[in-house]
Design goal:
It is built from 16 helices and 13 strands. By secondary structure, it is of the alpha+beta class.
């Protein structure tokens, strides 16, 4: 894999921004491209060609965890689990860190529906990090704030995508004793610009402001989660167009199709995600349909933390390869219509007035493919 600052191939940049943060001359800025993703731009007249930006690139991780252990895991507190996307494991980890006076960093949604990283100093505030947010989050000054807390002797839990965790390590120059990283099993990072258009399109169609987007609501159960739009006038709408565009790879960042973090090799202390395929391995653990987590423990630090919170979890060891065979473990393939869709986004032809129409149009599946997919689902169900 090349370095974006040499190749200018967008598949080589995950957008962490560490190159800009570490530039001693502040000659690099992160700028949004026409697709809505951020990339570094070097001001040549200010650059002294020291090479630091290339050395700190987080898209080339060098040290992975060792001796991985994988678990089926559930937080037995039902209210904690109902608020979460899967089995409520994040909240159990956060509870331990915050109980010891630490700080938790995670992803939330602001009042104007911007998806971004923030800090939480108590358990109530950490609830904002629960649940899935299918938008590439803005890190803003998160890495700097983590560093300040760590250097002051504070304990920090940082949660994010695998590439964001790798970015933090790159920014810090390596691991630190009082840092715990927890990555999600990441499918891909959708475009914030497309999400903004989607929200505005919903508002135009409804004639009301969107108050909240529940990307994966458990109102219909964990296995039948749906996206729910909550309007300021109290109306609720089930609409999965944006979510389907995400899972079908229509609106995702180019580097997600060239991801070095998507395999079984993990770089954070802990990895969490939904345990899809649980009905084939341990169906009893999914009977209440409130969610089950895949928990990967990747480092000795992670193992120590697990030992301290094991009383707050129900867990069962499982073979790593078996677990990941049912869950995301490889690069996602770009949708055949992605380039055409983003040409429309870039030109402005696809915008806040019509983006829902075009997402539906470009995802429309031929009839023969629907028949094949249905047959495959039946065969898998009966296998």
């Amino acid at each position: 894999m090349g370095n974006y600052l040499d190749t200018y191939e967008k598949a080589d940049c995950n957008g962490c921004g560490v190159c800009a943060l570490k530039c001693p001359k502040h000659a690099i800025s992160m700028e949004e491209d026409l697709e809505g993703f951020y990339y570094p731009v070097i001001r040549k007249d200010e650059c002294v060609e020291c090479g630091i930006c290339r050395k700190v690139c987080s898209n080339n991780p060098v040290e992975a965890g060792s001796g991985q252990q994988t678990y089926i895991a559930v937080n037995p507190n039902m209210s904690d689990r109902k608020r979460s996307a899967s089995g409520g494991i994040f909240y159990a980890i956060a509870k331990f860190i915050l109980g010891g006076g630490g700080t938790v960093f995670g992803v939330t949604v602001s009042d104007d529906l911007t998806v971004l990283h923030e800090a939480a100093g108590d358990l109530e505030d950490a609830k904002k990090f629960q649940g899935s947010k299918y938008v590439r989050s803005r890190l803003n000054d998160t890495y700097q704030n983590v560093e300040k807390l760590l250097k002051a002797g504070g304990y920090v839990l940082f949660t994010g995508t695998p590439c964001q965790c790798s970015g933090l390590y790159s920014y810090l120059g390596g691991d630190m004793p009082n840092l715990l990283t927890c990555e999600i099993i990441c499918h891909a990072n959708p475009s914030p610009k497309v999400f903004r258009h989607y929200v505005k399109n919903l508002e135009i169609n409804a004639g009301a402001k969107v108050k909240e987007v529940l990307f994966r609501s458990k109102e219909n159960g964990w296995k039948n989660q749906t996206s729910i739009i909550v309007f300021e006038d109290g109306r609720r709408l089930e609409d999965s167009v944006y979510y389907q565009a995400f899972v079908n790879e229509l609106i995702n960042r180019p580097s997600c199709h060239n991801c070095v973090f998507s395999g079984e090799t993990r770089y954070a202390d802990l990895t969490i995600g939904d345990f899809w395929g649980i009905e084939r391995i341990a169906p009893d653990m999914a009977e209440d349909d409130l969610g089950v987590s895949l928990l990967n423990v990747n480092t000795e630090k992670g193992r120590k933390i697990l030992g301290k919170i094991e009383q707050d979890l129900i867990r069962m060891p499982v073979d790593t390869k078996t677990a990941f065979s049912y869950n995301h473990h490889c690069n996602v393939k770009e949708h055949k219509n992605r380039a055409e869709f983003f040409r429309g986004i870039s030109s402005g032809d696809i915008n806040e007035e019509n983006v829902i129409y075009y997402m539906k149009k470009y995802m429309k599946m031929p009839f023969y493919r629907k028949v094949i997919n249905k047959a495959v689902r039946i065969l898998r169900r009966d296998a």
